[in-house]
Amino acid sequence: MIKILLCCAGGFSSSSLSTKLEKEIKESNLQNEFYIEFSPFLLSLSKISEFDIIVCCPHLRLEVQKLVKESNPDIPIYILPPRMYGVIYFKDLALDVTDIIDMYNKNKTNPVHFPGEEHTLRITRNVAYRNYKK
Fold first, then answer.
1. Domain 2-131, CATH among 3.10.129.10, 3.40.50.2300, 3.40.50.1100, 3.40.50.1820
2. According to the UniProt entry, which residues carry Phosphocysteine (predicted)?
């Protein structure tokens, strides 16, 4: 099972997004494969050991850089593309999360990003990276 911690600044947008994604997990009968929980970003460090990946809202990019510099967590951190964050579907998130975990396990560098997506705010896709056609 992949356990995902979804973070935003205060937990407000991530809580509603997490509820939507939990519903999609249940509707797709993926409860044995994925678990998602939301948290304000500032509380994420206290929960890191319980999760396989931290997925952050796009507006947290500076906070993520600071976290990585100061404490370098030993799980992957992924910053969602802005357009994906607004209309996310769990099937796309699941693909990205699986790919990000694989990438992290190969090089242990955070935050993890896909090739060509070093600048989060410039990413225009709203689907999983592997399904995106430029």
1. 3.40.50.2300
2. 8
